[in-house]
Amino acid sequence: MGRESKTKNQKRARAAAQQRAQEQFASVPHSFVFHRGRVGRSLQQLILDVRRVMEPFTASTLQVRKKNSLKDFVAVAGPLGVTHFLVFTKSPTNVNFKLVRLPGGPTLTFKVTQYSLIKDVVSSLKRHRMHEQQFTHHPLLVLNNFGLQQMHVKLMATMFQNMFPSINVHKVNLNAIKRCLLISYNADSQLLDFRHYSLRVVPVGASKGLKKLLQEKFPNMSRLEDISELLAK
Asked: Which of 34, 149, 157, 208 is the most exposed place for a label (fewest CB within 10 A)?
């Protein structure tokens, strides 16, 4: 009888934990990232890269067909809990980006002046730190130069903040945050910089050898007589 009771309690605990996880997942912002009209391969890759930035609360494998209208996306957005559309379009002269808040707006429209793909950034680095575990948690959003009093600046800041779950500084697990999204506004040029970074925790105030140990790197100890020298120096 004791085993059956324990098994039932475990099942109830798992069911309760699963329900809490589902409720938490449903309570945070979700997004669709897609394009409208004809776009080239480069822009299609940019859309996939933006989906990576928005993970895990975005439709990473969203399929877009020519016959799909915007109403089709709106129709499925409600049942799926989608709160934002990130839409790319291309004209003969410009690449445009629209950020749409569902269900009642507002909608912000931007002109994309230049962009770099993830593969281009990775190929330019000797060592890169991109791995799948980084995308199991949403990025840390950092807004720069959005303290101005203009109404459009405040609106942009609110839209960007609402794209991601809020962070409780007292409960957040810092080891879970592996990425940072920096959005910087230049009031003179009225341009936005949208930059995605990889983060890692680095120990401060420790010796070089101890830092390597904490970062799971085994230092060269051939010149040491005892491991205490590694920690002391």
From this structure: 149
